[in-house]
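so my prof wants the structure for this chain in the tokens format not the other one, which i didnt know existed until like an hour ago. anyway here's the sequence
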Amino acid sequence: KVAIKGIERELICPACKELFTHPLILPCQHNICHKCVKEILFAFEDSFADGGSESSNQSSPRIRISASSMDRIDRINRSGIKRNSLTPRSTLFPCPSCQRDIDLGERGINGLFRNFTLETIVERYRQAARAAIAIMCDFCKPPPQESTKSCMDCSASYCNECFKVHHPWGTVKAQHEYVGPTTNFRPKILMCPEHEMERVNMYCEICRRPVCHLCKLGGSHANHRVTTMSTAYKTLKEKLSKDIEYLISKESQVKAHITQLDLLLKETECNSERAKQEASQSFEKLYYVLEEKKSAALRAIETSKNIRLEKLQTQVEEYQGLLENNGLVGYAQEVLKETDPSCFVQTAKQLHVRIQKATESLRSFRPAAETTFEDFVVDTAKQEDSLGDLSFHSNGLEIPEINEEQSRMYNKALISWECPGKMDSADIYVLEYHKLTKEEESVTWQKTEVCGKSKVLSDLDDDSSYAFRVRGYKGSICSPWSREVIMRTPPAPVFSFLFDDKCGYNNEHLQLNPGRTSVESRAGFPLLLGSERLQVGCYTTLDYIIGDTGIAKGKHFWAFSVEAYSYLVKVGVVPSNKIQKLFHNTHDVTSPRYEQDSGHDSGSEDAFFDSSQPCTLVTLGMKKFFIPATPAAPKDPASRILPLPSRLGICLDCDRGRVGFYDAGRMKCLYECEVDCSGLMYPAFALMGGAAVHLEEAVTAKYREYHDDI
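here's what i got, hopefully its the right format
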């Protein structure tokens, strides 16, 4: 006999936590009661109707939809499901065992196979559990007799007499199959749930379920690999038998593992108690420190109170002496009664000084002590923040580090971090940030939980500096905070545009990528042909390209990067009324006679050159940033040459008529000048030789996921 009592956990429905009743096989191969499937589907439909509220999660006293399953409601609800009072119309729900989404298809519950084998085992378990309870005959007149056999064809139980009456010899019923008393009646032939008139005679190896020949010919299993039912029965039974034999042969090893696990259970109990004691001791120390601080603060307040009360009481007594027939005044009145001049003068001199002091004190009355205790207010804001961050620290949990190269500030803030050991030991990370202000007394950190190693923030102010820090959590254990990193947001809202491939675009010298976010100038054969016209005093033409969107007002910022191999690039802005002049201008770069060693670099020539430019541009190239030669610029040429930042930015303020050129990585202004913003202003770029410019990609919520996939 099989030890029925030892397999009880295998016979429990994962939904209702009771013995299976008419179990059905889900596509994920887990089992569930027929009634439970309907209740789950009805519960989901109730959740749809109530918008997924918690109260709607109580539609069935036996079924509870887990919190992880409730987040599927919105997605399923978009299919327009409506409830029928008898049959659930919903066909999508999470498996209670594995939480996978189960789609029952058009046939719904009717498309699931009933697990008769499991049902038989459950029935044997029930019989073993209620061995003393007899199954009564279904046809006896009251009182019914105990049944002796059950007919599988009639799905009924009989005593000996009733069985002879309903199954007489010589009739068809006499050929019925009968077994011992049972309440589990199963059909002799398993029918296909999709084709109800067809019996299953094949096994689909892809879907791992029995199918009929119609399923294979033109149904959902037409292109699947199938085998005969007998072959599948033999194969699966051999595999199951071998696996069971292997497990039985390893019984000693299993028992050893159970013994080890029992020891681990006891060890876990002991270690948890020890950890509780250590945690209690730590908090007791904090209590002791707080009690000491509390006692010291109360003692200081009490001492100050006594001193102040003493001063005020003395002052009260002094003023009481100024009353008539009382104290000093009474004594003075008695002195005035003295008639001997010499004796009066001897006493009155000192008394007069005291009277004068009392008079002055009366005119300028001030209490001898303050009544407020503002100096004794305890500021616990920082300590409260520290206690709020109090958690278990572990040396085994790595301290994350914010990667400043991968992090960037643009239209949104992208903050990325990594662990030094390159191991993702934390389950979740907490990113905190706050805006830096001049008043750093009360800093309020904003907190956000992150499952990955990057976070996009969109609620930051322009032209502001922020401090960021991150820590990892693994259960209740957390790492120390990372080093704080300070980053600055752009000076103005980000302006989005693409390169214009129509207005003045020279496709012979310039090449745009399909997205029009990158432009490249190739120093190839066309440039060599153009160099035939180069003579002393002639100019080489730049290839210009502008943005496809103009700016009429306000303050805007955009960023881009210039390839390190670029020979010559000019960047800036151009007004709409000078675009035509820009593309037809021949004085773009200096001629050989304008070079410093030519002897023709006079100031008048500088003035002519500057005034002839149709737009405001700065020069980049050979990994350098060249500050234009202006009266305010340093006279030494070497001091006007800066290293080229990896990312550059331009800030155009149309209202103030100024344009600034920034190191977009640090948001530091490198050069700023006035600009005429009378018309629409367009971003302008010029390239010569081998050069390339890439517009900064906007930060989106999926930015890191996209790049991680790449």
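also thought this was worth mentioning. Residues 308 and 369 are 5 Å apart (CA to CA).
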